[in-house]
Amino acid sequence: MKFLRAILFCAVLLLPLFGCKDAQTRAREAEEQIRKQLKDPMSEALAQKLPPEKVKEAQQYLHTLKEYLGEPDGKLDSVTVNAIQAFQDSHGLTANGMLTDDTLAKLREAAQQKRS
After folding, report:
1. How far apart are CA 46 and CA 2, in angstroms?
2. What is the pLDDT of residue 110?
């Protein structure tokens, strides 16, 4: 009888540690946590705080390079971010769509070479 009480006592104490959720529920929760931890490059790139002049400059260079076919307007949109990513990818940069000073400098250089 004491043995059964001890087992029952241990089971009650250990239950919260193991949880009483089924495997499918635990897997679903784990998947949600992983998704929250993954970064969405497009969302991050679109959230950049950039002056319109800088975006327009990049768009003009991308237009010269035929990476951006829209009208340079200084608005950072998904088309611009995709063009930046394509340029970064083709020039050995991290293709994340972030318009860094390094990316802008390489854009300027590539556009000048194209014009010459």
Report:
1. 65
2. 96
pLDDT at 46: 92
Q: What pLDDT is stored for residue 80 in this prediction? A: 97
Residue 34 is predicted with a pLDDT of 74
Segments of the chain with pLDDT less than 50:
none
Sketch the domain layout of the chain as residue ranges.
2-38, 42-115
Q: Are 67 and 83 in contact (CB under 8 A)?
A: yes
Residues 77, 99 contacting (CB under 8 angstroms)? no
The answer to whether 57 and 99 are in contact (CB under 8 A) is no
In the CATH scheme, what is the code of domain 42-115?
A: 1.10.101
| Chain Cα centroid distance, residue 32 | 16
Burial class (CB in 10 A: 0-12, 13-18, 19+), 7: exposed
